Amino acid sequence: KEQKPALPYLKGKKVLITAGPTRETIDPVRFLSNRSSGKTGFALAQAAQDQGADVTLVSGPVQLDTPPGVKRIDVVSAKEMWEVVVPLFSEVDLAIKTAAVADYTPKETFRHKVKKSDEDLYIKMERTRDILAELGARKNKQILVGFAAETKNLNQYAEAKIKEKNLDMIVANNVNDTGVGFASDDNQITILRRDHELVKSDKKGKEELAYFLLEEIQPLFEGEDA
Ligand code: CTP
Ligand code: CA
């Protein structure tokens, strides 16, 4: 495997990464989720750890091995992810939120398996809380990187999210083209940085993409004390 040049800014940095989907329970045998595989977040955790960072990975349910040396905390629902991530944030230097967090959760969870009937079934959903926006509101010294999954108007939505959530960088993912983005090994992305730099990346493997993103984060630390 080709050795990438060192990124000294990461050495000893505390890095928090979230990854994967969340699952929102409907009844004891059913849940709502999404197509996120967690691969981008796990690749980032591995790449940051390889660069000497102290990495904590908060993951939804995925089928991936924990990168060596990375501290992994598993969660299931959006609410659990909030409860783990928000308290950790104050201690970190860098937080990267790749997780595909559910925006809605069933307003009530059925205690017993829902039986079918001849009627249509309606499940009332309520909004979850936006973890990334909360981190943006609490941010003091941390560098905060968000992701955006879009199927249209990628740049406009990404620009809105970087402002609204007080981010330093957003990685916009076009999940429209089948095979790119969610649940795939390749990822075609557009990066928008608070310094207004807009970078497009070609389709690369997720490992290469992870290294590329860490390179793009580096300028955000410049001008800060080590
Ligand atoms: N996010 C979060 N908590 C939520 C929802 C989203 O932390 N409850 C984070 C994701 O981890 C991601 C970013 O917000 O880093 C953008 O997620 P995305 O779904 O693209 O945007 P939303 O703000 O949820 O808006 P919408 O789904 O309507 O596009
Ligand atoms: Ca969302």
TrEMBL record:
Record text on cofactor binding: Binds 1 FMN per subunit.
Enzyme Commission number(s) from the entry: 4.1.1.36, 6.3.2.5
GO MF terms held by the record: FMN binding; metal ion binding; phosphopantothenate--cysteine ligase activity; phosphopantothenoylcysteine decarboxylase activity
Residues reported in the UniProt entry to bind CTP: D103, K113, F147, K161, K165
GO cellular component terms given for this protein: phosphopantothenoylcysteine decarboxylase complex
Pathway membership, UniProt: Cofactor biosynthesis; coenzyme A biosynthesis; CoA from (R)-pantothenate: step 3/5; Cofactor biosynthesis; coenzyme A biosynthesis; CoA from (R)-pantothenate: step 2/5
Renumbered residue ranges of the record's region Phosphopantothenate--cysteine ligase: 15-226
Described purpose of this protein according to its UniProt entry: Catalyzes two sequential steps in the biosynthesis of coenzyme A. In the first step cysteine is conjugated to 4'-phosphopantothenate to form 4-phosphopantothenoylcysteine. In the second step the latter compound is decarboxylated to form 4'-phosphopantotheine. Catalyzes two steps in the biosynthesis of coenzyme A. In the first step cysteine is conjugated to 4'-phosphopantothenate to form 4-phosphopantothenoylcysteine, in the latter compound is decarboxylated to form 4'-phosphopantotheine.
Name assigned to this protein: Coenzyme A biosynthesis bifunctional protein CoaBC
